[in-house]
């Protein structure tokens, strides 16, 4: 899940970067001056922006893609302990080995 979130956050961050470069074309003549004076602040802001986008993507993934996970795991646990499935025999054999 973290790898997917990192990938999606990177795509969103790059899309925002390209859009911003398109919108700020008028600053190209002063590019060297801006980067010389403000590169540290720009990099800190970019890092914080990426961290916030990553947090948002992780929250969205957990909210929508992991819905009802606890209920599904509880159902699986009940099925394993009842002994009425093929999966329970495999898992019981594995626990006896340990």
Topology:
Layout: H1 2-23, H2 31-65, H3 69-82, H4 86-97
Helix pairs in contact: 1-2, 3-4
In brief, what are we looking at here?
The chain is mostly helical.
Explain what the structure shows:
With 98 residues, this protein is an all-alpha fold. It has two domains: 1-67, no CATH class; 68-98, no CATH class. Helix content is 85%, strand content 0%. The protein has four helices and no strands. The chain has helices at 2-23, 31-65, 69-82, 86-97. Helix 1 runs antiparallel to helix 2 (31-65). The radius of gyration is 24 Å and the shape is rod-shaped. The relative contact order is 0.10.
Strand content: under 5%
Helix and strand content put the structural class at mainly alpha
> Which range best describes the helical content: under 10%, 10-25%, 25-40%, 40-55%, 55-70% or over 70%?
over 70%
Task: Please count the helical segments.
Answer: 4
Rough shape?
Answer: rod-shaped
Write down the domain tally: 2
Number of strands: 0
Which spans of ≥5 residues are poorly predicted at pLDDT below 50?
none
Order of helices and strands: HHHH
Distance between the termini: 29 Å
Mean pLDDT: 86
Q: Compute the gyration radius: what is it?
A: 24 Å
Major sheet attributes: none
